Amino acid sequence: MINELGPGIFDNTFIDSREIKDDDYLLCYNENQVLLKPSDNGFEIPKKSDFSGQIESAVFLFSIHNSHCFGISGTNANDPVLNFHDIFTLRNLENKEHAWIGSVGYQLMTWYATNKYCGRCGSQTVRRKEERSVVCPVCNLVVYPKISPAVIVAITCNNKILLAKGKNYKGDFYALIAGYVDAGESIEETVVREVKEEVGLEIKNLKYYKSQPWPFSSSLMLGFTAEADDTQQIVIDENEIKEAGWFTRGMLPPHASNISISGHLIEAFEQGLF
Q1: What is the CATH number of domain 148-270?
Q2: What is the mean pLDDT of residues 124-147?
């Protein structure tokens, strides 16, 4: 998966760092676009050495290996081939480390951009030096990065897996049933509700599989496996699902890639791991 880089590579420990070195990475976004530098294998995240002039409004985000990563607003690139690209370009980068820091940087910089003002009194917020948060200097409201818990489940029956096409997917592919945890719900209750709502099935033998942070939607995906009786009729929620059906190993349709937990679970099924 996109976040599985190995131990000690990505470090999101917060530090109040303001010194930017030439080997540090600068992450710049323009709405749903990210600034990238061409490389031999496609694109990569630019470093400070790729920029000219003084860097303003830089905020420390995290570290990778021995380099710090900063978010910036505006660019002064001295390399004319630096350009903005759709944020989902990151999902296909050959360099998975750059794909990950670009994705998490997008999550954090989007959070900073949408929390410039206090949600309680409307005053301008200030970044805190001691931790990754912003505070209102008027009413003292402290706001932390938003992380939305969501569930995703691989439902199987008699060596078949249930796959669905979401109505809002970018691209023509299948994935697993997923949805956000609602107020007052446990994650197990969320799985049961989402499956019933989206495809009309009752499930059993629900088991936790693994989790994945998904920066593009500021989510923490909690993966499960479950079983269902395929004699039940699939009834899709046409507001969210285009189509859904049962598929056997070796006959799977185009589906989410294994950078996501959805694709990872589908490939685990294909390999007979559950």
Answers
A1: 3.90.79.10
A2: 97
